[in-house]
Amino acid sequence: MNYSELVFAIEARESVLCVGLDTDLDKLPRGFSKGSQSMLDFNKAIVDATAPYAVAYKPNLAFYEALGLEGWKVLEQTLLYIKTRYPGHFTIADAKRGDIGNTASMYAKGLLENMGFDSLTVAPYMGEDSVKPFLLPDKWAIVLALTSNGGSADFQMQPLANQAPLYQKVLERVQEWGSPEQLMFVVGATHSDELAHVRSVAPNHFFLIPGVGAQGGSVSGVLKTAAWRNKPGMGVLVNASRSILYASSGTDFAQKAALEAKKMQSDMALFMETSRPLLIP
Amino acid sequence: MNYSELVFAIEARESVLCVGLDTDLDKLPRGFSKGSQSMLDFNKAIVDATAPYAVAYKPNLAFYEALGLEGWKVLEQTLLYIKTRYPGHFTIADAKRGDIGNTASMYAKGLLENMGFDSLTVAPYMGEDSVKPFLLPDKWAIVLALTSNGGSADFQMQPLANQAPLYQKVLERVQEWGSPEQLMFVVGATHSDELAHVRSVAPNHFFLIPGVGAQGGSVSGVLKTAAWRNKPGMGVLVNASRSILYASSGTDFAQKAALEAKKMQSDMALFMETSRPLLIP
């Protein structure tokens, strides 16, 4: 999916919601057995329930890899289901890959070309040749800048010799490698004090923003500080995983997931509508 | 495999050679078809040919993921082959994973517990909670410090506010999270000017050292500067991938791989023997 298609999907649905498919067999609602088929059935139910309110889906590869071959199958089938039924939704392989050039090309081949994800998350530590192989036509690299977890303080927030934090250097340097039509950044909603600064450093790129919901950030707070300055509510994908997937542990899990997704989408739509510049007729 | 077993294996074989299984279907020798079975057959032949000279094997997960389900099967079967036939060899999942705590736990479950790798490579960008879940009994996290590629200049070598480069901060901080019996570091042989400094910052940890062979570093140069100060030739795993796997594109590929591995092991043994402190009877 390319840039214009993504912008169109967001405008059409008045949503920047990304549903993170961090599907954990140990947390499935009552009635599901512990097998990999349950994982697929659950994913399909969650996707069907949230598709009207979401613009993107982000399977977290760790949860599939943990089941070995069977998990890998569920990942492929989940992606196929989304791409077949909901071709207007953006797909993200949350893989956090990062390796030397020839290896990065192999990851690009596997996840973007063969499996067909629109994008994948990438760790920047290994630099330019570890990111560039992902910049393929109509595909995206989503580079970690400032992540939502506690460990982000260990290195990402360390000041460099010029006093700017490492994450700022990452934002600046990575922007030299590709356009806003190929590159996004991961910025955690938990860093409410830094979001506006991050946006000023990378004014034109999409941000994938985890850390809303179970991790604590608010939708309107995030949109106010992190969305594009000239287009209210645009330029971000706000991810929620656990708060939607496990909204209920009962048989009403899909309805509750839909309600949670709808609530987030309503907040997004309200923000977009009320923040539009007034048109004087 | 634990610390004493690894030290024992190195002493017994007078080798610190790690063979990187970056197996690329497009580079297989003449006579191999392009299917995943070829990849497994090739891996087995390489392992059999190099086992007398190597102490570790390191499949690069990207090359297996690129083939989807079939590739994942080859990875599992390759690991099973090594663990069954050569249980005294150390195994490394070259995965460069790095994600928030609950996700890192899933990667640990999949690669270390279920598949049974002794260790995996980990990217440090996301900090403490992304590394600690890998510190399991008799398992190892091998954290990227200073990698062998050109992109290592982009962030790893950036000076922080105290003028020390980022990779030094990574070495210092990560050492606080676990012991030399749980943690290793990746340090590229291509950084010949920095190897001695890196060793002084982390005197007691094992280093996994890529960048010898196809990427240019020399075995004796690496051992001189990067091995433990008090035990010549110990405390490193020197990786070679392409120079061994693709030593010949003909039907003699296994013999040529064995020769190349043997040459490296001989250099290692010579270094260990000639650098031993003299014992005065």
Number of helices of chain A: 11
What would CATH call the class of chain A?
Alpha Beta
> What is the CATH fold-level name of chain A?
TIM Barrel
What is the N-to-C order of secondary-structure elements of chain A (H for helix, E for strand)? HEHEHHEHEHEHEHEHEHH
Mean pLDDT of chain A: 95
Query: What is the tally of beta strands of chain A?
Result: 8
CATH superfamily of chain A: Aldolase class I
Strand order of the largest sheet of chain A: 1-2-3-4-5-6-7-8
Biggest interface pair, counts: A-B, 60 and 60 residues
Oligomer: homodimer
Terminus-to-terminus distance of chain A:
36 Å
Provide the number of structural domains of chain A: 1
What does this structure look like?
2 copies of one chain form a homodimer. Chain A is an alpha/beta fold and 281 residues long. Chain A has a single domain (3-274), classed as TIM Barrel, CATH 3.20.20.70. Chain A has 11 helices and 8 strands. Chain A has helices at residues 3-13, 36-50, 61-65, 68-85, 101-114, 128-131, 166-175, 195-201, 219-226, 242-245, 253-274, and strands spanning 17-21, 56-59, 90-97, 119-122, 140-146, 183-187, 206-209, 236-240. An 8-stranded parallel beta barrel of chain A has the order 1-2-3-4-5-6-7-8, surrounded by 6 helices. In chain A, helix 2 (36-50) runs parallel beside helix 4. The radius of gyration of chain A is 18 Å and the shape is globular. The mean pLDDT of chain A is 95. At the A-B interface, helix 3, helix 4, strand 3, helix 5 and helix 6 of A face helix 3, helix 4, strand 3, helix 5 and helix 6 of B.
